[in-house]
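Page 37, continued from 36.
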C-alpha cells in the first residue's frame, strides 16, 4: 500500500503545475523569493498591480486538506507574501489582500496563497474572485481560526 501511495504522490507532482514551478522545472515562472519550504512567484493572470502566489514545496491539495498542525505553515506563507510585497515596493500594508480559494473554486489543486496589492486596485472584472468571507475566498485569519477551532484532524471549510 505504501508503494502505491508513493507512486500516486509522484504522479500528482508530475502533473501539478505548481510542483513543477517549485522544483525549478518551469523556466517561464517569475519566482520572486524561495526558501526550503515555500516559493513565491508572480501570478500569470494578475488581478492587481501586485499579484503573487505563495506555495509550499510539499504538495498539499487545498485548504480543505489542512489540519491544526499546518497553522504554522499558513502563518509562514502569509509572512513570506508580506515580505515580498515590501521588497516589491508596497508600503501600504493596510491595502493588501491575502487569502485562499476554496474548492471547487481552485484552478490548480496545490495549496496556494493569493497575495494582492493594492487591494483597492483589484481589477473590477476579477474582484468577485477575491471577496473575503465569500464562498470562494477565505482570508488567512479565517483559515487559521478554523484550523484552531476544529477538533478533528482535518478542516472542512
Amino acid at each position: 500500500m505504501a508503494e502505491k501511495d508513493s507512486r500516486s504522490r509522484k504522479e500528482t507532482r508530475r502533473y501539478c503545475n505548481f510542483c513543477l514551478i517549485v522544483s525549478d522545472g518551469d523556466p517561464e515562472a517569475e519566482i520572486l523569493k524561495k526558501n526550503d519550504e515555500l516559493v513565491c512567484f508572480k501570478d500569470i493572470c494578475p488581478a492587481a498591480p501586485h499579484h503573487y502566489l505563495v506555495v509550499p514545496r510539499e504538495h498539499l491539495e487545498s485548504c480543505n486538506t489542512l489540519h491544526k498542525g499546518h497553522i504554522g505553515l499558513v502563518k509562514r506563507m502569509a509572512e513570506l507574501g508580506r515580505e515580498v510585497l515590501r521588497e516589491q515596493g508596497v508600503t501600504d500594508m493596510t491595502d493588501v489582500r491575502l487569502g485562499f480559494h476554496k474548492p471547487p473554486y481552485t484552478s490548480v489543486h496545490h495549496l496556494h496563497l493569493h497575495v494582492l496589492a493594492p487591494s483597492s486596485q483589484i481589477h473590477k472584472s476579477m474582484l468577485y474572485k477575491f471577496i473575503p468571507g465569500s464562498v470562494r475566498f477565505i482570508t488567512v485569519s479565517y483559515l487559521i481560526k478554523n484550523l484552531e477551532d476544529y477538533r478533528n484532524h482535518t478542516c472542512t471549510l
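Residues 1-9 have pLDDT under 50 and may be disordered. Flag for discussion at group meeting. The beta strands are 31-34, 38-42, 50-56, 97-101, 113-117, 137-139.
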